[in-house]
TrEMBL record:
Keywords: Signal
Amidase domain residues: 49-451
Entries under InterPro entries matching the protein: Amidase_dom (IPR023631), AS_sf (IPR036928)
Protein name: Amidase domain-containing protein
Cited Pfam families: Amidase
Domain of life: Eukaryota
Signal sequence bounds: 1-24
SUPFAM superfamilies per UniProt: Amidase signature (AS) enzymes
Length: 508
């Protein structure tokens, strides 16, 4: 990182701090509850909040590249909710009323914003309707602030493309250590929340795309059970593995968002089955300070501690002691059967399944668009070849696209892969959880993501510390399908006991 960029960031941070002091209420690091209380006490309006976030985006985004687009109607929406609050309209009591939110740029909005997965191939495409989760957010009173950047096509275009890069959004940067990996594919959602360009964002995960960027950017990410949140209107990778979840700075904020977006959507059949997991009264009731007490937590060291060194390893062991002190029962040195196979997407069959599922699901999404420059994966590949300089194809290629295009539906190879994935889940994660009567599995970082992904299992990443170089890392808590209630208790209990998160340092 060049010296002039480092100096620029220091100047930007100084300006940013001055702008905050002009408000009686401090917006930086404010939670949803803080913001709603400030609204109630007339210390802050939604217009002021949106103006502040837009100012932060203008100052920091040229370096961080966490945001692709700002909604031109964001201030109009803010004025509308401010009027509703002033008029004491019943709608003003809704959980996310007046709270701005950034959406990953593969989540459709029927407004002036684009939905492109970071690619110029979909620029100008017109979606038929808001994504299911966006409908629920609007119903809860949220303001759509804009679209967050991502690893292009949710990291499913090329094995050579770096994390957090897209043709439209550029290279996303980790706000803690600018040269460090911000991870993906929901990179912009995590970067923007970590850097206080917004308090709330949505990400998507097929395999690690919420847990990994949350881990590297010291934020909280919830990967829900597949089907708990609607995937309708989201540019897909795999209907079998895709899930939509919140990325916020606190567990409480993430749970407030989960409450707003979880539930049935007739445009996503998977939500009918998963809706049975939603507790009466929602998830907020499980934000218990002593949520760790009595929980049985499994510790899998191999292979997830293989790369933990120095202070990171010491912090991990310290946290395990903390979990015990808070009343959790730790079942240590557990092994997940065939873990090396699960973590190898080629051997496990995950790659074969995803390639075929991606082509089918993406073509179906493109077919439903009201208007689009491209209508199939084949046309996207052709677009990329034609505009290779625009899409950086010469540099990174589109090898995953080409492999996906070569598939022909779910044939014998894919069926065998799907059977193997189900067996790996059954004999691995599920068996460990049930035989040891575990409430959750605890691992450092996001290495557990493939284990959760292939079975559609939920997970929560919570900030857990910093490496010797200042790069954040988190704890991942994973559970069986529908166990979000337990995971929330555990994650909230851990967060409230440790309180590790701090604002980014913007180290070069």
């Amino acid at each position: 990182m060049s010296i002039h960029i480092s100096l620029l960031l220091l100047i930007l941070l100084a300006i940013s701090t001055l702008s905050i002091s002009s408000y009686a209420f401090s917006i930086r690091e404010a939670t949803i509850q803080d913001l709603k209380l400030a609204f109630k006490q007339n210390q802050l309006t939604s217009r002021q909040l949106v103006e502040f976030y837009i100012g932060e985006i203008h100052r920091l985004n040229p370096v961080l590249n966490g945001v692709i687009e700002v909604n031109p109607d964001a201030l109009y929406q803010a004025d509308k909710v401010d009027y509703e609050r002033k008029a004491k309209a019943p709608r003003s009591l809704l959980g996310l009323h007046g709270i701005p939110i950034l959406l990953k740029d593969n989540i459709a909005t029927k407004d002036k914003l684009n939905t492109t997965a970071g690619s110029f191939a979909l620029l100008g495409s017109v979606v038929p309707r808001d994504a299911g989760v966006v409908m629920k957010l609007r119903k809860a009173g949220a303001i759509v602030l804009g679209k967050a950047s991502l690893s292009e096509w949710a990291a499913f275009r090329s094995l050579n493309a770096p994390n957090a890069f897209s043709a439209r959004g550029g290279q996303g940067r980790n706000p803690y250590v600018l040269s460090a990996n911000p991870c993906g594919s929901s990179s912009g959602s995590a970067i923007s929340v970590a850097a206080n360009m917004v308090a709330v964002s949505l990400g998507t995960e097929t395999d690690g795309s919420i847990l990994c960027p949350s881990n590297f950017n010291s934020v909280v990410g919830i990967k829900p059970t597949v089907g708990l949140t609607s995937r309708a209107g989201v540019i897909p990778v795999s209907p079998r593995q895709d899930t939509i979840g919140p990325i916020c700075r606190t567990v409480a904020d993430a749970v407030h968002v989960l409450d707003a977006i979880a539930g049935f959507d007739h445009n996503d059949p998977a939500t009918k089955e998963a809706s049975k997991y939603i507790p009466y009264g929602g998830y907020i009731q499980f934000l218990k300070p002593y949520g760790l007490k009595g929980k049985r937590l499994g510790i899998v060291r191999n292979p997830f501690l293989k790369y933990a060194k120095g202070s990171a390893l010491a912090q991990y062991e310290h946290h395990l002691r903390t979990l015990r002190q808070e009343g959790a029962v730790l079942v240590d040195h557990l092994e997940i059967a065939n873990i090396d196979v699960i973590l190898n997407v080629t051997v496990s069959g995950e790659a074969a399944a995803l390639l075929a599922e991606f082509k089918l699901a993406l073509n179906a999404y493109l077919y439903e668009l009201v208007d689009s420059p491209v209508r199939s994966l084949a046309e996207i590949i052709a677009f990329n070849n034609k505009f290779s300089e625009l899409e950086k194809i010469e540099e990174f290629g589109q090898d995953i696209f080409l492999l996906a295009q070569a598939t022909n539906g779910i044939g014998n190879t894919e069926k065998a892969a799907l059977l193997n994935l189900a067996k790996l889940s059954r004999d691995g994660f599920e068996k460990v959880m049930m035989e040891n009567s575990l409430d959750a599995l605890v691992t450092p970082g996001a290495g557990i993501a493939p284990v959760l992904a292939i079975g559609g299992f939920p997970g929560i990443s919570v900030p857990a510390g910093f490496t010797d170089q200042g790069v954040p890392f988190g704890f991942s808590f994973g559970g069986l399908k529908g166990t979000e209630t337990k995971l929330i208790e555990i994650a909230y209990g851990f967060e409230q006991t440790t309180m590790i998160r701090m604002p980014p340092s913007f180290k070069p």
